[in-house]
C-alpha cells in the first residue's frame, strides 16, 4: 500500500495522465505569456523586490495554521504577489516557488506541477489581481483601504484557486470521492483558509506600504496620496 | 524606519530577506502538523493507520489512495527535512529561502529592462 506523506500541494496520481498533461500545457502557455509580459514590470528596483517576494512566499507557505480540529491551511500567495509585484511577475514568482518545492522538497508531484501551477500561480494570481485591480479606488484612498483590498482579494484568490482542483478532478479525477463532495469540502475549507490568507496578505501589504509604498505595484502610477507621499516627501506614516 | 529605508533601499531588501529567513528557520517549528485543505479533502473517507515500519498508511476509500510516490522523495531536503532527520525543518526552510531568492532573483534580474 502507498505510504502517505504530508505534502501541501497536489501529489502525483490524483488525476489521470491526460488531464495532468492538459493542465501542463495550460500552465506552460500561461507561464510563457507571463514571462514575456513580466519584462515591462521589471527594472533595477523591482527585480530584486520580486526575488525577495518569491522567497517570502516560499517561507510563509511552510507555516500551516490550524483552521479546524485536524485540518490546517497555508498561504497560496496569489493576491499577495499580484498586489506587490503585479500579475505577470506574480505568475512567474509563484511558479518558481512551486518548482523549487517539487524538485527540492518533494512537495507537489512532478507530473502534477502543471496542475499546481494552473491553480495557485495562474488562477490564484489572476483572480487576486482582478479583485485588487477592480477595488483599486478603495486601495489608493487610505492605508486602511489598501489593507482591506488585500484581505478581500486574498480570500477570493484562495477559494477560486481551490476550485481549480475541483475542475481538474471533475475532468479526470482518479476516484475515491464524488465531484460534489470534493466541491463542497474544498469550498468550505478554503473559505476558512482564505481568511488566514487574507490576514497574512493584509499584514504583509500593509507593512510594505508603510516602509516602501513605491514598491507596491497596485499603487504604481495612481498619483494618489499614498503613492505621492512616497514619491515626493519620502516620509510615510 | 520609513525615511531610512527610502534613503538606503538595501536596508529594506535586507530586512525583507531576514524576515523570510526567520519565518522559514524559526516560525516553521510552530506550523500545524495537520493536513492542509487539499490533503484533508484527499484523505476524506480514509483512516490513517500506522504500519509495521512506523509509516502511515491510509485505509478505506479516498482520493489520496491514488497518490503515487514522489520522484524526488529521497532527495536531501524531501519533506522539508535534512536527510529525513526530525527537527531539521528550520534548516531545510533556510536552505529553501536561499535557493528561492537566488533562482527567482536571477530570473527577474535577467528578465528586467536595461534601458538607460
From TrEMBL, chain A:
Q: Which UniProt keywords apply?
A: Cell membrane, Membrane, Transmembrane, Transmembrane helix, Transport
Membrane-traversing stretches:
20-40, 46-67, 79-104, 110-132, 144-167
Gene3D superfamilies, per database record: 1.10.1760.20
Say if the entry is tagged with keyword Oxidoreductase. Answer: no
Tell me what topology the record assigns in the membrane. Answer: Multi-pass membrane protein
The answer to whether the entry has keyword Membrane is: yes
What's the chief localization of this chain?
membrane
Q: Which domain of life is it from?
A: Bacteria
The record's subcellular locations are: Cell membrane
InterPro entries given in the database record: CbiM/NikMN
UniProt protein name: Energy-coupling factor ABC transporter permease
TrEMBL record, chain B:
- Nucleotidyltransferase keyword on record: no
Q: Where are the transmembrane segments?
A: 12-31, 90-111
**Carries keyword Cell membrane?**
yes
Pfam family membership, one = PDGLE
Could you tell me which InterPro entries the record lists for this protein? PDGLE_dom
Where in or outside the cell is it found?
Cell membrane
Where does the PDGLE domain start and stop, copy by copy?
Answer: 12-113
Q: What is its main location?
A: membrane
The entry's keywords: Cell membrane, Membrane, Transmembrane, Transmembrane helix
What this protein is called in its record is PDGLE domain-containing protein
> To which species is this protein native?
Pseudonocardia spirodelae
Amino acid at each position: 500500500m502507498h505510504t502517505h506523506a504530508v505534502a501541501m500541494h497536489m501529489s502525483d496520481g490524483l488525476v489521470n495522465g491526460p488531464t495532468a498533461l492538459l493542465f501542463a500545457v495550460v500552465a506552460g502557455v500561461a507561464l510563457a505569456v507571463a514571462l514575456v509580459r513580466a519584462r515591462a514590470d521589471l527594472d533595477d528596483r523591482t527585480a530584486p523586490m520580486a526575488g525577495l517576494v518569491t522567497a517570502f512566499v516560499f517561507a510563509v507557505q511552510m507555516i500551516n495554521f490550524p483552521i479546524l480540529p485536524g485540518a490546517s491551511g497555508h498561504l497560496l500567495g496569489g493576491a499577495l504577489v499580484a498586489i506587490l509585484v503585479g500579475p505577470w511577475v506574480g505568475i512567474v514568482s509563484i511558479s518558481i516557488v512551486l518548482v523549487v518545492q517539487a524538485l527540492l522538497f518533494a512537495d507537489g508531484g512532478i507530473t502534477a506541477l502543471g496542475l499546481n501551477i494552473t491553480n495557485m500561480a495562474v488562477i490564484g494570481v489572476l483572480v487576486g489581481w482582478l479583485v485588487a485591480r477592480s477595488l483599486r479606488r478603495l486601495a489608493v484612498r487610505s492605508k486602511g483601504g489598501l489593507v482591506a483590498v488585500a484581505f478581500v482579494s486574498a480570500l477570493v484568490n484562495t477559494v477560486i484557486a481551490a476550485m481549480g482542483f475541483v475542475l481538474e478532478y471533475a475532468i479526470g479525477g482518479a476516484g475515491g470521492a464524488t465531484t460534489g463532495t470534493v466541491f463542497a469540502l474544498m469550498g468550505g475549507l478554503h473559505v476558512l483558509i482564505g481568511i488566514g490568507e487574507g490576514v497574512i496578505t493584509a499584514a504583509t501589504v500593509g507593512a510594505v506600504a508603510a516602509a516602501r509604498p513605491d514598491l507596491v505595484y497596485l499603487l504604481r502610477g495612481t498619483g494618489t496620496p499614498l503613492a505621492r507621499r512616497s514619491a515626493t516627501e519620502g516620509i510615510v506614516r | 524606519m520609513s525615511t531610512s529605508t527610502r534613503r538606503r533601499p538595501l536596508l529594506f531588501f535586507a530586512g525583507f530577506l531576514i524576515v523570510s529567513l526567520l519565518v522559514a528557520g524559526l516560525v516553521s517549528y510552530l506550523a500545524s502538523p495537520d493536513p492542509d485543505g487539499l490533503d484533508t479533502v484527499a484523505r476524506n473517507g480514509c483512516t490513517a493507520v500506522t504500519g509495521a515500519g512506523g509509516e502511515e498508511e491510509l485505509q478505506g476509500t479516498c482520493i489520496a489512495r491514488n497518490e503515487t510516490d514522489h520522484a524526488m522523495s529521497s532527495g536531501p531536503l524531501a519533506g522539508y527535512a535534512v536527510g529525513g532527520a526530525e527537527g531539521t525543518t528550520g534548516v531545510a526552510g533556510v536552505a529553501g529561502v536561499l535557493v528561492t531568492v537566488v533562482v527567482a532573483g536571477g530570473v527577474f534580474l535577467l528578465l528586467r529592462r536595461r534601458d538607460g
